[in-house]
Records
---
Amino acid sequence: MFRKISALILSLIFTFTFFSLAIGNYYSEEESDGPKRTLLISIDGLRQDAVQNTEYGKYLIENSSYSLEVTTVNPSVTLPCHMSMFHSVSPEKHGVNSNVYTPSDELGDGIAETVFGEEMSAAIFYNWREIGYIVTEGSVSVKEYIPGETLGWEEANRLVGEATVKHIQNAPTDFVFMYLGFLDEEGHGHGWLSEEYYYALNESFSLIEKVITEAKKQNYTVIITSDHGGHDHGHGSDLPEDMTIPLFIVGDGYGKGENLGKLSILDVAPTVAQILGITPPAYWEGTAIPKNAK
Ligand SMILES: [Zn+2]
C-alpha cells in the first residue's frame, strides 16, 4: 500500500514537472519573434562631425536610434579601440595599448567568445590584418580577411561588402562583424575631412546601404559605429576630434530619429548581447543601449 502511494506521488510530481517545463518552454517561445541576429559594422576613423556632411549620414540620423557623442578609449588607436568595442573594458584592462597585440592576463571573453559560449554562431569580414586578433581562434565560424594592404583599400572595402552580403544571403550567422578600413587610410593620406576622406566615406556608406538591405531581410538588427575619429593626418590623442565617434542602431525596438545622447564604445558589446538575448560576462563594464528609449 505504502509503495503504491509513493509511486502515485512520484508520478504526480513527474507529471507536474513535465507540464511546468512544457508551459515554460511555450511561454519562452512566445516571447521571441524570429531570430535576434546582430550585424556590427565598424568604419575605421569615422569622426562624428563628418556624418552630417553626407547624404546617407543624414538619412541614418533620421532613420535610426543614434548618437554623435560616443566616447572611445584612450589611446584612440585602431586595435586598442576595437578590443574595447569587443571586450567592453578599457585598454588598461585588456592590455592592448597599441596596434601590436599584447593582451593582459585579465583579458576575458569578448563578443565572439560569448556568442560561441551560448552556442550561437559568428562571422567576421575585414580588410586590416590586425582586426583578426579581436576574436579568439575557433570562436567564429567564418573569418574572412581581404587584405587592403595588397589589394588596395577601396577594392578591399568593396570585396568585404560583397562577402558580407553573400554571407547574409546564404548562411547567416547570429552575429556578423564587418570592418571597413578605406576611410582611415584616406584620412592618413589626405587628411581628416579632406575631399578624399569624404569620397571614401560615401563609398563606405554605399556598401553599407547594400549590406543593410540584405540584413533587414534576414532579421538583423544593425549597429554602425567606428573605433576613433582623427585630425590632420592622424589620431591617437585625447582630443575630442579623435575621441568622439558616431553610432547608429537600425532594428526592432530601436526608434527612428531618436538621439541616444552620450554613450561609450564600451556600450557596444553589451548592446550586441542584449539584442541576441544572451548574458554579458560579469567583467564587461559598458551598459546596453535600452530598446524603445524615449
Ligand atoms: Zn588610423
Note: Residues 189 and 233 are 7 Å apart (CA to CA).
---
Amino acid sequence: MDDSLELFSSAVPSAFSKDDLEPVPAALSAVGGVDSGRCTFYDVTLAEKLAEYIRRSYAQVMLTFKEPKNRPQPETLEKTWKEMETMLMKTAEVAKPDRDKRGVVVIKRSLELWVSEKKGTLSRMFSAMKSKDSNESEIAAYQAKIDRLPHTDHNSVYSEEASNALAIQLLDICGSYLEHCRVEWDDSDDMDKHISECSFRPFSCESPECGVMVSVKNYPDHDSVCPWKRLSCEQGCGLVLQRQEMKKHMTTVCPRKPISCPYKRLGCDAALVLETLEDHLSTATDTHLWLAVLLLDKQDTYIQSLQQKMDELMDIVESTEQDLKEQHSVKVRAIEKQMSSLKSSISSHSSTTKKEVARVKEEQDRIRTQYRVGKI
Ligand SMILES: [Zn+2]
Ligand SMILES: [Zn+2]
Ligand SMILES: [Zn+2]
Ligand SMILES: [Zn+2]
C-alpha cells in the first residue's frame, strides 16, 4: 500500500460507519478495497455541515415534545427520523440530475420545509387536544398518533454517526461536481492513481492537536484559520507559536511589542519595543531630564494663572457679600418702620376701648341709681 492509500484509509473517520442505512456509502467500500468503478470521495467539510444541519432540524421538530407529559416514545422518534430520511432521499434523487446546482442547498431547503410543516402539524395536534371544543374522535386520533410516537433514547435515533452516514449518502446521491468526486476508472491501477491525487480525498490537519479532517481541496482554507497551526511571531521576535496564542503573545510578553516611553507624559515620543526600553532609558536620561524641567516651568506658569483667577474670584465674592449686607439692612429698616406703626395703631385702639368700657360702666351705674330711687 503506498502512502496515499495509507492516508486514505486512516483518514476515513470510523464514526461514519452506519449500521442500518442503505446503501453503504461507496467511499467506505473503496477503503475496504472494493473497486466500485468510480471515485466516491465527497467534500468532508460539507458532509459535516449537512450532518449537523440534519441533527439540528430533527432536534427542532422534537422540541415540540418539550413538555414532560408529551415526551415522545422511542417509536415516535424512530418514526420521525425515518420520515425525515425518506423525505431527504427523495429530495436527493430529484436534485441528482441538476449537477450545476449545489445539492446541499436543495437538501437544506427541503429540510427547512419539513421542519416548518412538522412543527405546524404537531402544534395543531397539541392545541386540539387542549381545546374542550374538539370532538372526541379527533382527540382520539391525535392521541393514537402520540401513542404510536414513543420515547426516550434520542441519541440512538439521531446520533452523530447516524446523521453523518445519512449526510454522506445524500451527497453520494445528489452530489454535484462541487461537493462530490465522480471520476470513473477501468482498473485498479487507474483507481490507485486517482485516489492518490483526488482533490476530494480526506486529509487530516497537519497540526497534531487539531485533528480536523477536510478534503484536500479545502485544506488551504482550513490551514489559513487553524488555531493550532504553528507560526512565527508576526512582530518578528523569532518565536514559533500556535495561531491561537499569537495575539496574547504579541500584546504581552513579545520582546518586539511596541510600547511608549514611560516619560511620554513629559513629551518623549520615542518609538520603542519592549526589548529596547532599557537601552532607551539609559541613553535618553538627559532628554528626559530636560523635558522634566520644561514641564515644571510650564506648570509654574499655569499655577500662577490659576492663582490670579482665584484672587479675582475672591474680589467678586467680597463685593457680593457687601451688596447683600446693604440690601439686608434696608429691608430690616422697612420692617421696623412697619412694626412701630402697628404698635401705635394697637395702643390707639386700646385707649378707645378703655374709654368705651368706662362709658358703659357709667351708664350701668346711672341705671342702677335710677332703679333704686324708684324712678323705674
Ligand atoms: Zn476522486
Ligand atoms: Zn487544523
Ligand atoms: Zn514575538
Ligand atoms: Zn523616552
Note: Residues 261, 263, 268, 270, 280, 284, 288 surround zinc ion (ligand 4) (CB under 6 Å).
